Amino acid sequence: MSAASSSSKAPLERNILRGRFLFPLHRIVCGRGSFGEVVQALDMRTGRLVAVKVMPLDNLSDRRVDQVVQEVSLMKELSHRNVVQYIGTAREGSNLNIVLEHMPGGSLASLLRHYGPLPVELCRRYIADVLEGLRYLHGKNVAHRDLKCENLLLCSSGVVKLADFGCSREYTDGEQAQTILGTPLFMAPEVATAVGPYNPFQADVWTVGVTLLQMLTGKQPFAEECASPMKYFLLISKDGVIPPIPTHVPATCRDFLLRCLVRDPKARGSIEELLYHDFIDGTGPDDSTASAAIPTINESKA
Length: 302
Known about the structure:
Transferase(Phosphotransferase), domain 1; transferase; seven-stranded antiparallel sheet; globular; disordered N terminus; Phosphorylase Kinase, domain 1; alpha+beta; two-stranded antiparallel ribbon; about 300 residues; single chain
């Protein structure tokens, strides 16, 4: 091919969002959901990879669109080490694109699918990150309301961050929640039974316990017994019912779970209390060998 013909070749068309976010030549999908999909892009301003949540508005109900607007408004106000960072929003055609911090480790649910139940020591580290993120949210009067491993993302440094704020909202001046919202198998009894207004921050504490059980067992509690949300609602409405706790966990871990999974919301531990629980700081009597649970690898020196 001659130099003249080579130089006259048409330039490669690139898919660039708002003149800033460059999509790859071949679409890289990070995740999918009922909303659409999350794809990878390159922020040409910073040189960093980002995640773009692509939501076809034609497929969304008016109620869901309102929910997305509320979610974006909320994320704009959040900035914390354990919360996925919101970068921006752009609408192109019938798609709404929400640009977020790229989390290369994916969700903890994906981690469980690949690696199975996680070691207690790793669960301790991950749940501590979750508690820090929730402490920040609750300090801003925001309840997450849909905590689970699917909504916890892992960055390259091993830090866990809270994501997906579609069910989240701000509650001020002692305001109570009244709607059944979230993922059924993770709902606190007072949410699932819909007996009246409830404290959404205390409901988040219950989901911390269920999420920890999901990490420890590799599955959602009651998943086998409750094939439908209605079966779970009927089961959790019975007095004394809480998710089963594995027998292999240390005593401090069991006690931590029992502080979360208290059916009486007012008797549950607060996020602040849980952060200083023996299970989290590793000072319990059954944690004397914790440092040896995951051996250290001696790095070779060049």
